[in-house]
Design goal:
Helices cover 67% and strands 1% of the residues.
Amino acid sequence: MDTNTFTARSALTYAVIIPLALVFGYLLTTPMSIMSLAGVGLALFVISLPILLRWHHALVICCWNTVFICFFLPGKPPVWVVFAALSLGIAVVSRTLRNKSNFLHVRSVTLPLVLLAIIVIVTISIRGMGGRAFGSELWGAKRYLGVLGAILGYFALTSQTIPRRQGQWLAGWFFLSGTTAAMCDMAFAFGPAFYFLFLLVPTELAVAQASTQDTLLRLTGVAWMAQAGNWFMLMRYGIRGMLEVRHTWRAVVFVALFLLGLAGGFRSSIILLGILFATQFWFEGLLRTKWLPIAVVAMLLVGAVLVGYAEKLPLSVQRSLSFLPIDVHPTARQDAQGTLEWRLQMWRVVLQEVPQYLWVGKGYTFSSTDFLLVQEAIRRGMFTLYEDTLVSGNYHNGILTLLVPFGLAGTFAFAAFAWAGWRVLHRNYHYGPPEFRHINTFLIAFFAARMIFYLALYGQFDLDLMVFTGVVGLSISVNRGVCSPASGAAPKPDPAPA
């Protein structure tokens, strides 16, 4: 390269960089203004565009279970929703330019999700949609975003296959990304100097810690982090691999994470992990093997330690154990029992409203004025504890949070998707590549456990749909579609009946 060419390129580089530096310097004088955020965001997007074009699909997978939010966008949507929309857009544009589709089309799953999206859009057109971020008196837009984002996310996950050599670690990051929830508790615990982290993570997870620090001290983010670690270990090693004597450290880490997860004070953490452990035990075919007595003895030992020292454990842990017939502190038992009672009362009220929303759903839109007035009335002791939850439509019940907002049509569409997704997971479990045996076994066990928990115990449709679409989409992408006996993998025998 001659001197003149080098000089010309250097001059051109400085001609671009210096004006940009001046513009950024001006914008940063008012860092929280809309114009500054939009300008910086646009510049960062342009700079990161080559990375997005190359790694957009991997970024969707790695961010699926993170708690990170886009603070610079209206409503602070989750990062996984934004990446899903960008990835799907890039995939569609790439297909148009190349006139060649890499999408893994599974018709039995696609049709119910498209139908569900149409039902959501029709419900919005009938019931309206507002948002706090847009200054509307009506709230609820973010919950619609959760449903539509989960549907878009499925198509983003299935927009291309995962290379075989990347399957293990991408599937691992899919679940390990949930460990980012611990940042919420850390930001609050470390004090005001770290509150800037709440620009990246939601404050809602730290609310339980802030409101209970003088009593139970519930660490929601830590509990979610431990749960994500347990899921990763079950997927990576399987139950058989964690019970092997030569790898004792795996069982020790798994139990330690389980105990750490009890710090959230959620009874569901024990119940859900118990259901997941049972379903995976079934799908690994361990019921009539030596591993059954080993697993039973291990659980009895852990249970004996918890029961023996229950009253000496932190109150948040005792609250998690309060549904068991053991002695725990009255404060922990009363707090847990109180939430159960108001939920039962709320469900009785909601069941009376179900018939009027069977054909045209209620939607997620609700009046912010009513919500704030009810909250103030609750503080003054004039209303029961569940009234604000009743107004917002978060019924703490999977079926009700689907049936009331979207009626029978939405319920039918979700049931059709669940059945189709189960068939996809079942075929990939039977006929998937041998190197992905642990992944496919865990995915079908996880899907079954979460579905049982969602239908029978607790669920929120706008938050849980992404769990189901994510698992099905990941299975399709990892296995390059839906496997069959012709794909070459030897079929696995059905688990032996108990």
